[in-house]
Specification:
Maltose phosphorylase, domain 3; hydrolase; alpha+beta; nine-stranded antiparallel sheet; five-stranded antiparallel sheet; binds beta-D-glucopyranose; Beta-galactosidase, Chain A, domain 5; globular; Alpha,alpha-trehalose phosphorylase; 33 strands
Length: 811
């Protein structure tokens, strides 16, 4: 586990003050650098020791068989696994013949700092070799946001009170061993030597290039490096390349006070179509661009890019510096996952590790894209264009399943369904409505008419068509969607999942509306008036399951009559339950992996009354174990909405610290990008009270006791709205428009209008005390953000329910 105070609290940095080899895999994920196209895990420069060595290119995968003991119709035949491509991070150092290895000699100091504004990972160490020579090494690494095929490392070495002979070997290595097999279903399949060498060369200027391809998926990748050496004394530099590795060697002798500076520029490119010469040229061109900027230029571009991101996206919190740091860390990684993905998926782990085989899920549309919509909308358009690129595959999948429209894959890299477990894969049809909702939100927030015409209509229409054939009207006319799995994966293949039905309802209406607004596009897709009317009918007749006796929504048909899970008899070490209990048992009991009705109450909050929200929240809190990292942010939002502000603060903390504290004990496999995005959702949706159900944004801001001020910004149709909330009032101000640019919005239900010239300040209405906070299953309460003495109304268990005093198992 990452130690409680593993990373000191600082507003703009994540700093590791000493190297802990027991959590190397975790720190490699935390310190990963990516731009959505290239991902470099935070491996040590010298390559060893490592937890998981990883270098990724978005969508560069290998196929692997999906074997079934008992296969069935429509089961996917092959899976996809992200490939650990040629490692260009490697820089080995020999000090008087002794390789720098932190396990040998003496590591006198070691610090790594992820700088969230500079976009760099800096490492500084002082090492005494077994022979007694002492060196100081500073390496600074970046993956460029502005040049998406480029990464770079600056490596500086100097002797400390001695003279030394130095050899620096900077490498490209393909087919390196990178991870050990595991039985946890959430980790990646291990691919042995997936890359076949196709070309290797060294040019006169010392550029080395390796081109490889995958055996089955037939993708081709090139990696190239070139170096600049800066040293006051004589150096000897040579470069060589072989099938699976290339190496530039620098030799020199340094006296005390002298220094060797090596700048390594790296470029990557891949394609499923282009030839070896074309890839070679593509990578060569990227390297030329990097050289043209030079190291200082790359640093300056990186800084500018991030300055403008933070200007739009930063969230400031007074009163909880730990969460402040974690939220910025989360936003930085969300940006790294999506910034330059450019019509490729944003996967569950971003490009920070091999977990979940590098697949993208609904995490993208329901957790990552809502954040990017309001902070970096261009990345959202790209991510949804990727979905459009895979629409034909989704149509084919629907056809194979006997359905109309498009059935998007539950997990995938290229658009093919890769889930071999259909009850929590294919049956999770809600992903179609999730995509539709992301499309709707993006169009509404940006007013991007071109996107609506060219991208949105197709996605909305084809997802709506699926619902029309997947669901049916019963003899009373009610519309049901039977046999599907909602977000809670501990309940599968049930009728009328509330979340699915409400999201499908919105999807059907959005399709009908966009077809009406774009008749030409609708005609091209063959949409008739009758079809649009059928979507509206289905939406109007959507059956929503309520247990009248308990007065709560039933997650799915009959869910509330299932046997209760015995939480008191479930030991802490049996979480996550999916690794300790058979699915058949989880499926037939009231135990919930992650927010489901509660998630519906967030994104379809317009379909519930305040009273229903309060009752549902209390009911589902007692049964939700949060075995998915996607849950806590949603629980934060609903805890805040139902008035349990301190509980909301606790859940915010859990989402934000998911990886900095390794709360689910699997950060080593890659970061939980949806949870990190969820920290923003918890703050802006929870304490800012943002809802975007209609044309006008709604805010119901209210802060927990420990947070005295919250400030965030949203991009809205070319304008920038800044919201500052204190305990007493909220101020809305607008910029980036002319003086008379105006934005209507709702503040706690009251209509106000903000213009660029006139900010509006409105009071936060007094809080109506909601009563005791709901309890969680035994031992599953989130860790508290504030000492109990300061939080009088938190986590008092309701009568007859188990105490919620425990902390989560993984803490
Ligand atoms: C969750 C899914 C999620 C997946 C990838 C699972 O544990 O239950 O909702 O899509 O992880 O993050």
């Amino acid at each position: 586990m990452i130690r409680e105070h593993g990373f000191p609290v600082e507003p703009w940095h994540v700093r590791e003050e000493e190297l802990d080899l027991d959590v190397l895999a975790q720190s490699e994920s935390v310190f990963a650098l990516a731009n959505g196209h290239i991902g470099l895990r935070g491996n040590l420069d010298e390559g060893e020791p490592y937890g998981i060595s990883g270098t990724y290119l978005n969508s560069f995968y290998e196929l692997r068989p999906l074997p079934y003991a008992e296969a069935g119709y429509g089961y996917p035949e092959s899976g996809q696994t992200i490939v650990n491509v040629t490692n260009g991070k490697l820089i080995r150092l020999l000090v008087d013949d002794e390789p720098l290895d932190v396990r040998h000699g003496e590591l006198l100091s070691h610090e790594r700092v992820l700088d969230l504004r500079a976009g760099t990972l800096r490492r500084e160490l002082v090492w005494r070799s077994p022979g007694g020579s002492v060196v100081k090494v500073i390496s600074t690494r970046l993956v460029s946001f502005t040049q998406r095929s480029v990464a770079a490392v600056r490596y500086e070495v100097e002797p400390v009170n001695c003279s030394i002979r130095l050899i620096v070997q900077s490498e490209l290595v393909a087919n390196e061993a990178s991870a050990t097999p595991s039985t946890d279903p959430r980790v990646a399949a291990v691919l042995e030597s997936p890359l076949v060498a196709e070309e290797q060369l060294v040019t006169d200027d010392g550029t080395a290039l390796l081109v490889h391809s995958t055996r089955t998926s037939k993708l081709r990748a090139g990696a190239a490096m070139v170096h600049e050496v800066d040293c006051a004394v004589r150096t000897d530099v040579s470069t060589e390349a072989y099938e699976d590795w290339a190496r530039t060697t620098v030799a020199c002798e340094l006296a005390d006070g002298e220094r060797l500076t090596l700048t390594k520029l790296l470029a990557y490119g891949w394609s499923s179509r282009r030839s070896v010469p074309a890839i070679r040229d593509q990578v060569g061109a990227a390297l030329a661009g990097a050289r043209f900027s030079g190291w200082e230029g790359l640093l300056a571009e990186q800084r500018d890019y991030l300055d403008s991101f933070w200007d739009a996206a930063d969230v400031r919190i007074d009163g909880d510096p730990e969460v402040q740091q974690a939220v910025r860390f989360g936003l930085f990684h969300v940006l790294q996952a999506g910034a330059r993905a450019e019509q490729r998926p944003i996967s569950a782990k971003g490009l920070t590790g091999p977990g979940y085989d590098g697949h993208a899920f609904w995490d993208t549309e329901m957790f990552v894209l809502p954040v990017l919509t309001y902070t970096h909308p261009a990345a959202v358009a790209d991510a949804l264009r990727w979905r459009l690129d895979t629409l034909e595959l989704a149509r084919q999948r629907a056809q194979q399943l006997g359905l109309a429209g498009a059935a998007f894959p539950w997990r995938t890299i290229s658009g093919h369904e890769c889930s071999g477990y259909w009850p929590a894969g294919t049956a999770s049809f809600h992903i179609g409505a999730d995509i539709a909702d992301a499309v709707r939100r993006y169009v509404q927030a940006t007013g991007d008419a071109g996107f609506e015409r060219d991208i949105a209509v197709d996605l909305l229409v084809e997802t709506a068509r699926l619902w029309r054939t997947l669901g049916h009207h019963d003899r009373h006319g009610r519309f049901h969607i039977d046999g599907v799995t909602g977000p809670d994966e501990y309940t599968a293949v049930r009728d009328d999942n509330v979340y699915t039905n409400l999201m499908a309802q919105r999807n059907l209406l959005a399709a009908a509306e966009s077809a009406a607004r774009h008749p030409d596009q609708a005609r091209r897709l063959g949409v008739t008036d009758e079809e649009s009317a059928a979507w509206r009918d289905a939406a109007a007749a959507m059956h929503i399951q309520i247990d009248d006796e308990l007065g709560v929504h039933s997650q799915a048909e009959e869910f509330t009559r299932l046997q209760e899970w015995n939480f008191a008899a479930t030991p802490a070490e049996h979480y996550p339950l999916l690794l300790h209990y058979p699915y058949f048992d989880l499926y037939r009991k009231q135990v919930i992996k992650q927010a489901d009705v509660v998630l519906a109450m967030h994104w379809r909050g317009d379909a519930f009354t305040a009273e229903q929200k309060a009752r549902n929240f209390a009911y589902y809190e007692q049964r939700t174990v949060r075995d998915s990292s996607l849950s806590s942010c949603t629980q934060a939002v609903l805890a805040a909405e139902t008035g349990h502000l301190e509980l909301a603060h606790d859940y915010l903390g859990e989402a934000a610290l998911m990886d900095l504290r390794d709360i689910h004990a699997n950060t080593g496999e890659g970061l939980h990008i949806a949870a990190l995005a969820g920290a923003w959702i918890a703050l802006v949706g929870g304490f800012g009270g943002l809802r975007d159900h209609g044309d006008v944004l709604e805010f119901s801001p209210r802060l927990p006791e420990r947070i005295s001020r919250l400030e965030f910004s949203l991009m809205w149709r070319g304008l920038r709205l800044r919201v500052v909330v204190t305990q007493a009032e909220a101020t809305y101000s607008l910029r980036d428009g002319s003086d008379d640019a105006r934005m209507p919005l709702l503040h706690h239900g009251a209509a106000i209008e903000v213009t660029c010239a006139h900010p509006v300040t409105a009071p936060v209405p007094p809080r109506i005390h909601p009563g005791p906070a709901p309890s969680q299953p035994h031992g599953r309460a989130p860790a508290r953000r504030a000492p109990a003495a300061q939080v009088p109304h938190q986590n008092h268990p309701a009568a007859g329910t188990p105490t919620a005093a425990g902390r989560t198992a993984a803490e």
